[in-house]
Amino acid sequence: MVRIEESWKAHLEAEFEKPYFRQLSEYVRREYKQSTCYPPGKLIFNAFDLCPFDKVKVVILGQDPYHEPGQAMGLSFSVPDGIALPPSLQNIYKEIEQDLGTPVQRSGNLTRWAEQGVLLLNATLTVRAHQANSHQKLGWANFTDAAIKALSDHRDHIVFMLWGGFARSKKYLIDAKRHFILESVHPSPLSANRGGWFGQKQFSRCNTYLAEQGEKEIIW
Question: N or C terminus: fewer CB in 10 A for the chain?
């Protein structure tokens, strides 16, 4: 039994029965027993648990959980209270402040976004300590692609924020006629400092679209 929020379970239950997911589950269980992995097991599906299927208003797609101690919490780009802000999140906050003209909370814990309807989804949900992308080829992408496709097919007027080449490669899963897609370079310093991240006003554009659909804006 996969412990995941009930509305998501209803939309993704077919995935749990597929051979790839059974193999994935077995491998991940073994990895967590034999090695240090992140996030903690109870937080693997945290993005889904905090943001039920019918409550999703925005999707922010990351690639891989943070792989150093104390950082990963099952939400893309997010770190727990008291943990130093990673460089990408620093740039996200800078752009929000420039875009909206309002200061952002200094904690990197983005649970407050998730509870407002922002699905903070990593394409790969687990990682071995100190080894970025170490679980990337286990099959997680099949599962998270199915989640994106389910949202695209069964919901309307979601904002998909695709940052960087990897996230943008998932665009084919989204029906652009039903949803609003915002694309940019990745907020990491390596990409953002070359241009294409700052000044895009994605957060105000997101909120304008939500308001036009009669949805409550996100308090970023």
Answer: N
